[in-house]
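note to self: dont lose this again. the chain is below, predicted strucutre after it. 273 aa total, dont forget to put it in the shared folder this time
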Amino acid sequence: MDELSSKTIKRLVWAGSIIIAIIILLFASVRVVRAGERGVLMTFGAVSERVLDEGVHFKIPFVQKIKKMNVRTQKEEKLADAASLDLQDVQLTVAINYRADAKKVNKLYQKIGDEEEYVGKIIMPALQEGVKSVTAKFTATELITKRDEVNKEIKEAVKSRIETDFIEVEQVRLVNFQFSEQFDLAIEAKVTAVQEAEAEKNRLEKVKYQSDQKIEAARGKSEAIRIEASALQANPDILELRRIENEYESIKKWNGVMPLYTGGAIPFIDIKS
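---
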């Protein structure tokens, strides 16, 4: 009975071991390629011509290997040091959106490597070199005033260095740039000077306008006097009419009180009944 039990236990252990080994082999034979990924199948290290799509895939344990590659749009930012045409130091932050070609990830892995390797070997160096080549074409001031043009040229320069049959560049964007403290101070002083000059120009234009207004008013008054003098010269009776009008206005304003005199006789008014 004891011998039978011992044999049974051994058989159970062997059976259990075999089942566990089978389970391990099954797990080692299965790989799941998730959404946004593609699989690169390798047999004894040799890259297969077939790219594995999303889903469950089987491989031969210890013979084949599946390398999963990200094919979603990725974003990287690079702080690049460069110099302008007038030799001003400038730091530019450039962002890039890119993705691996889902149909050619096997070629990408075969020629360059996985994502970490092709970002380090291609993406980042291309950003640095593209930024430097474009920045050297513009003065520091032009980098500010022609930002759209600079951004366009950087995009083209970076894409030409990155785009291959395996990587697609979707967008390259100039995020920011920063000059040395000395250049920032010089720009600030220049802007202040321009603003002060503009303010002085506006003040001078205001003074000129006021002066022109006075000249025009004087011309109008002079013209009125000339016209009146010409009228008087042509018709002397106007002077008599003006005198009568003035006397009439004085009578209208008189309040009926006789003026006081400190000496001499009070003049009499001849009133006829």
